[in-house]
């Protein structure tokens, strides 16, 4: 960890959390820095265009530069959600099971869209839910599609990587990932990646989803993607 980088980001987060802006003394106290160090870091962030002051001694506020950095990714994710909604609806109609779209989010995946099964006994997945990448079908499909992510997780999560390495290799070879009650007892899931940052999962009670049926659902997902 490079301390100056860490402190700069802590200051950015403190400015963001302040809402209407915060003065030097408030920011320095918030992140545990002396006034001189905080001032120098804020001056650098101001010169780079990430924070601004209306005048000397006035509160620091964020500029729009950070928003411009993340906007293209946010817009692309929103566009993908809109494109995948008909896919999820069709897959759920055809399979009778809950289908959902998820994105990579650090060492987790984040569900961003879902269509729930109409069956009385079903798995309910809600947008906003997170699960670890390692150990889950969605996670393994995403890892299998992204060599850089695989390297990062194999280094950072050595024990968990060793436990799941075979299933990740299977996902890479088969083009889909399976979870046969490994992560949640009584729940089975199949996942197909949409490139390196998103994947579609279909999940439900394991009593309805033996391995051959999950493989068939993976084919259904791929055919539906091709059609839509």
Structure commentary:
- With 228 residues, the chain is an alpha+beta fold.
- It contains 8 helices and 8 strands; from the N terminus they run αααββαβββαααβββα.
- A hairpin with a 2-residue loop joins β3 and β4.
- The longest helix has 31 residues.
- The radius of gyration is 22 Å and the shape is elongated.
- It starts with a helix and ends with a helix.
- The mean pLDDT is 93.
Which terms would index this structure?
single chain, elongated, 53% helix, alpha+beta, 228 residues
Question: Which descriptor suits the 3D outline?
Answer: elongated
Strands, total number: 8
Count every helix, treating DSSP H or I runs of 4 or more residues as helices: 8
Helix fraction bin: 40-55%
Strand content: 15-25%
Note the main sheet.
Answer: 6 strands, antiparallel
Can you write the helix and strand succession as a string? HHHEEHEEEHHHEEEH
C-alpha-based Rg, rounded: 22 Å
- Give the CA-CA distance, first to last residue: 45 Å
Mean pLDDT: 93
Order of strands, widest sheet: 5-4-3-8-7-6
Class of secondary structure makeup: alpha+beta
The low-confidence parts are none
